[in-house]
Design a protein that fits this description.
alpha/beta, binds S-adenosylmethionine, 4 helices, five-stranded parallel β-sheet
């Protein structure tokens, strides 16, 4: 599965038991600093099924992710799309990487600037 804009890898501890021993996580982020912290977390926990990839979500390709079957089973993006100016095209691009029946989960925040607080 893909954890898009994985940051420091906070999601990994929740994902690990969910994907099981045969599952794998590809965590992508364009920040080397975030990925360094993610790598530290992965090493601390001894997760051998996590691969980290420095990539810009706006230009991410399936070739970069190097998927064994060419398509993703799952995509997760938490608090990532809202910080990407072209989030619609990022969503479209990564949604199209899913295999038929695959699932995409996104969690994010949006503050309505018109509320006035
Ligand atoms: C608020 S953090 C969320 C991190 C993580 N998903 C979480 O829930 O803890 C947003 C992340 O998006 C990454 N990011 C922002 N724009 C990006 C882009 N165009 N491509 C890849 N990563 C991006 C940032 O580097 C940062 O790690």
């Amino acid at each position: 599965m893909l954890d898009l804009a994985c940051g420091t890898g906070l999601n990994f501890a929740l994902l690990e038991p969910a994907i099981g021993p045969t599952g794998a996580i590809v965590g992508t982020d364009y920040s080397s600093g975030m990925l360094a912290r993610a790598a530290h977390r992965v090493a601390q926990h001894g997760w051998s099924n996590v691969r980290l990839l420095q990539a810009d979500a706006r230009t991410l390709t399936t070739e970069q992710i190097a998927l064994p079957h060419g398509r993703l089973h799952r995509v997760l993006c938490t608090l990532g799309l809202s910080v990407m100016p072209e989030w619609e095209s990022v969503f479209q691009r990564t949604f199209e990487m899913l295999e038929p029946g695959g699932r995409y989960a996104a969690k994010d925040l949006y503050i309505d600037q018109g509320v006035g607080y």
